[in-house]
Amino acid sequence: MSTRQSKPIGVFDSGIGGLTVVRALTRHLPRENIVYFGDTARVPYGPKSPQVVREYSVQDTEFLMSHDVKMVVVACNTVSSVALDLVMKRAGVPVVGVIVPGARAAVAATKNGRVGVIGTVGTIMSNAYVNAIRLMDASVTVLSQACPLFVPLAEEGWTEHQATELIAKEYLFPMKREKVDTLVLGCTHYPILAGIISKVVGDNVNLIDSGEAAAGEVGEILDARGLRNTSSARPHIQFFVSDIPHKFAEVGERFLGHKLGRIRRAEGF
């Protein structure tokens, strides 16, 4: 029988990108058990309507709750921007999204008060990062840019490809022109392209990985609620997807930083 502390943290994303958040969690919280669900049958969420994203988020949450998780981490920026309230209502356990932690980290990092945010069309259109940053510090100027081609480039592994650099220059030119000193990577895929993004915007620009920021917040909540796992047993990470596409394990390994092991298909999707 599981103790409250040994129960897993549930993490869900629209697909494979959320594995960068799992990687951050395992780095910050190496003893925690994790259940990951990627909705690979219905990815991407970014271009879909908020109503559809909210419907999917309820199903994703209910799947994680069926695994008796002690906390839910919404790795998907799109869900975090348009459906976090619904996830909180359905989960009944602490919920952390990636928007607020990422926004908080950006406000803390900027020196000139000029912050850039890049993400999917859905995340950028929601203005979730803009609103969160302005709520924390109304004096900060926020520039947003959708970068939809970054997702397929990251999954293809084109992390140092000339085509990726050319596309990055096109997307990020407004950020350079407006002299942002902090750039929020508002999509779980984007940390894979951090090298090229940094090269294009310049080493003097702080890159904020929202997954890293969220992992830090998860640790704070676990401590505050007495839920941190102190067991010395080897942590157990389970991977579930709604469809197992070709190359999932290969791409997932790139995002997670090591082999995934067994990947199971979730029922009911």
What do these coordinates show?
It is a single chain. This protein is of the alpha/beta class. The protein folds into 2 domains: 9-97 and 212-265, Rossmann fold, CATH 3.40.50.1860; 99-210, Rossmann fold, CATH 3.40.50. It is built from 12 helices and 10 strands. It has helices at residues 19-28, 50-65, 77-82, 84-91, 99-109, 121-126, 128-136, 150-156, 162-177, 194-201, 210-224, 248-256; strands at 9-13, 34-38, 71-74, 95-96, 114-119, 141-146, 182-186, 206-209, 237-241, 263-265. The strands form 2 sheets. It has a 6-stranded parallel beta sheet with strand order 4-3-1-2-9-10, sandwiched between helices. A 4-stranded parallel beta sheet has the order 6-5-7-8, with helices on both faces. Helix 12 (248-256) links the parallel strand 9 (237-241) and strand 10 (263-265). The longest helix has 16 residues, at 50-65. The protein is globular, with a radius of gyration of 18 Å.
State the main characteristics.
alpha/beta; single chain; 2 domains; 45% helix; Rossmann fold; 269 residues; globular; 4-stranded parallel β-sheet; 6-stranded parallel β-sheet
Strand content: 15-25%
Distance between the termini: 28 Å
Helix/strand class:
alpha/beta
- Just name the CATH architecture of the largest domain: 3-Layer(aba) Sandwich
How many domains? The number is 2
General shape: globular
Instruction: Specify the CATH class of the largest domain.
Output: Alpha Beta
Alpha plus pi helix count: 12
Helix content: 40-55%
Q: How are helices and strands ordered from N to C?
A: EHEHEHHEHEHHEHHEHEHEHE
Widest beta sheet: strand line-up: 4-3-1-2-9-10
Indicate the low-confidence ranges by residue numbers.
Answer: none
How many DSSP-defined strands? 10
- Largest sheet properties: 6 strands, parallel
